[in-house]
Amino acid sequence: MAEVAPDPSPLIIGGGGETVRRPLPDSFHVNGGDGTYSYTRNSYFQRLAANVVKERIKGAITMKLDVENLSSTSNTIYIADLGCAVGPNAFDAMQDVVHFIQQKYTLQCPQSNTTLQFLVLFNDQPSNDFNTLFTSLPRERPYYAAGVPGSFHRRLFPESSIHFVHCSYALHWLSKVPEELLDKNCGAWNKGRIHYTNAPNEVVQAYASQFAKDMEEFLCARAMEIVTGGMMTIIMPGLPNEMPYSQLAASLMYDFMASTFMDMANEGLVSEDEVDSFNLPIYTPSPAEMASVVEKNGHFSIEMLELTNPASLVDGPVDIKAWVIHVRAAMEGMFIKHFSTDIIDEMFDRLTKKLFMFTEQVESGYKDRTQILVVLIRK
To answer: What are the boundaries of the signal sequence (predicted)?
Structure first.
């Protein structure tokens, strides 16, 4: 399980010999701070989606995590939260995980006089706003906290040091944009689009291949870090095995983003080359794909793999304006790095108007079973 060195270059050479930009892996971070478009203020939908599976995670810890064995050599349980962003969702999740593990320990060891301690290692890209994360850390919490900057597609922790890993709404981000998408001489050149929604099969396959490579690196890194019998929970957007990707609400948004940029290119607000050279590094796998990459890796047993409805706790119809702001809080950094800053407001304003015209499709795609929960145990 060898480590792969990160690629520091923001430039690649296109098929015609021209140099085009691509977002650096470390540019994939949410908006920091506490402003109008900050992730701190605009991560409510992600929190509701994660809460849908909270009881399922509790059940997995209760039934599958041998806390007595994990604590036999030390009374400190090490927990990693990968892709923590800036809170507050990470704090809620860690509060729950610690509570569930404590409950399981009490159930397994009712006569024990040992008090478990917990250290939570909050991880995200080095450019993540860790200042906001730690200044908003709850004062009263049942764990110690530390920050670990770095890509979770690489090793982050010492060998056999982690007992529990949590990764929520982070693993659908690819480590990089597939390079084939920017090669004009390749069938995967993604002209006029910014994602694989309604794209040729070559584009879809380029994304799928990059996701499979990233997952293999991710699983190999975690296999080195997680103790035997340790648990990993993954929550991420998912695609039902038989559903066309174009039916997802997110795919509708990405399609409208592309058409909005092309409208602005036709008006001279951005260049067509800027649109052609920009692609979102996001992939939504099916349960079958997730099962395949985990089984191929071979270091983990699949204890749970299921689709859930991420909007089951949302009251009433989807608030499209709020949804777009949430997306902006998560993605704006990439757009700013690639396009002129002064066109970002215009793009999101136009995008919101387009989505309002297709409210019924948004509702249908958003409320389907489009969230994957995976629970893995290190063999």
So the answer is: none
Measured CA distances, 346 to 249, 260, 343 (Å)? 21, 9, 5
| CATH number for the segment(s) 39-378 | 3.40.50.150
In whole angstroms, what is the distance from residue 295 CA to residue 82 CA? 21
**SS3 category, 261:** helix
Write out the DSSP string of 5-46. Answer: ------EEE-TTS-EEE---GGG-----TTSTT-TTTS-HHH
Neighbour tally for 330: CB within 10 Å:
23
**What is the C-alpha to C-alpha distance for residues 57 and 313, in angstroms, rounded to an integer?**
17
Is the alpha carbon torsion for 58, 60, 62, 67 positive or negative?
A: negative
Candidate from 63-67, 93-97, 147-151, 362-366 with smallest mean pLDDT: 362-366
352/64 Cα distance (integer angstroms): 44
Helix (H, G, I), strand (E, B) or coil at 32: coil
Helix (H) or strand (E) segment spanning residue 352? helix 344-356
Amino acid at 23: P
pTM for the model: 0.91
Q: What phi, psi does 365 have (nearest 5°)?
A: -75, -30
Strand partners, 308: 371
Kind and range of the H or E run holding 371 = strand 371-378
Tell me the domain boundaries of the chain: 39-378
Report the alpha-carbon distance of residue 285 to residue 52 in Å, rounded. Answer: 19
Tens digit of each residue's pLDDT (9 = 90 or more) over 259-274: 999 999 999 999 999 9
Task: Report the sign of the C-alpha dihedral through residues 174, 325, 88, 106, in that order.
Answer: negative
Q: Left if phi > 0, otherwise alpha if psi is -120 to 50, otherwise beta: which for 83?
A: left
* Cα 338 to Cα 6, 124, 197, 271, 347, distances in angstroms: 20, 21, 20, 11, 13
What separation, in Å, do the N-terminal and C-terminal C-alpha atoms of the chain show?
A: 15
Q: Apex CA 154: angle with CA 212 and CA 175, to 5°?
A: 50
